Amino acid sequence: MVVLLVVMGVSGSGKSTVGSQLADKLGWKFYDGDDYHPKENRKKMAEGIPLNDQDRIPWLCCLHDILRRDHESGQNAILACSALKRMYRCILETRESDFRSVTHRREEDRPAPLKILFIHLDGPADLIAKRLEKRKGHFMPAALLQSQFDTLEPPSPPENFLTISLEKPVSEIVAEIEEFIRNMY
Ligand SMILES: Nc1ncnc2c1ncn2[C@@H]1O[C@H](COP(=O)(O)OP(=O)(O)O)[C@@H](O)[C@H]1O
Ligand SMILES: O=C(O)[C@H](O)[C@@H](O)[C@H](O)[C@H](O)COP(=O)(O)O
């Protein structure tokens, strides 16, 4: 069985750090969603302008295609991606922004949704802000953090997710995810 994990959360929540360390440990593929933003999105964020749905949808479709490709080739993969709204997580799973349009299509015409486990790194804005102030050489300004929290729709049932406190050390978060995967799959 192929395992697809998306490490999600607001900017600075630790997605890249946790995702890359977990992938190294497990020997799985790792993708950082940031690397796939078109230059217009990066420019917008660098100017302190939050992205909107129109900016994010093509980017999320491209990330879906990457996960789909790995799924089809039997490759376990981890993606670090903000995935802030439920609709964005739906695109990662189905490539469709409206789940109703997926269910309305004839079953034989639609590919099965990808089964993704979302790992939500959750924690207080003030701690994340402190971490972002120290982070160097990144295009995302700390000032956009509030807009990320405003946009965030934390995953909830029936979504397939695990929430972990980002206040824990990275090694502990990685171990917790490993343990969860072992028991689940
Ligand atoms: N659990 C953690 N404990 C302490 N520092 C962390 C933790 N997770 C991430 N960091 C630090 O916080 C900053 C933001 O992490 P990063 O992985 O870049 O977040 P994101 O990819 O979500 O934007 C980095 O400088 C990273 O080293
Ligand atoms: O959806 C978005 O608004 C962006 O994807 C954003 O959430 C993401 O966080 C940036 O790419 C910045 O990169 P960091 O998450 O690494 O700060």
TrEMBL record:
Pathway noted in the entry: Carbohydrate acid metabolism; D-gluconate degradation
Gene Ontology BP annotations: carbohydrate metabolic process
Transmembrane portions of the chain: none
Keywords: ATP-binding, Kinase, Nucleotide-binding, Transferase
Record has Kinase as a keyword: yes
Molecular function per GO: ATP binding; gluconokinase activity
Stored Pfam families: SKI (PF01202)
Reaction(s) catalysed (UniProt annotation): D-gluconate + ATP = 6-phospho-D-gluconate + ADP + H(+)
Enzyme type, top EC level: transferase
Stored PANTHER family: GLUCONOKINASE-RELATED (PTHR43442:SF3)
Family in the record: Belongs to the gluconokinase GntK/GntV family.
UniProt name for this protein: Gluconokinase
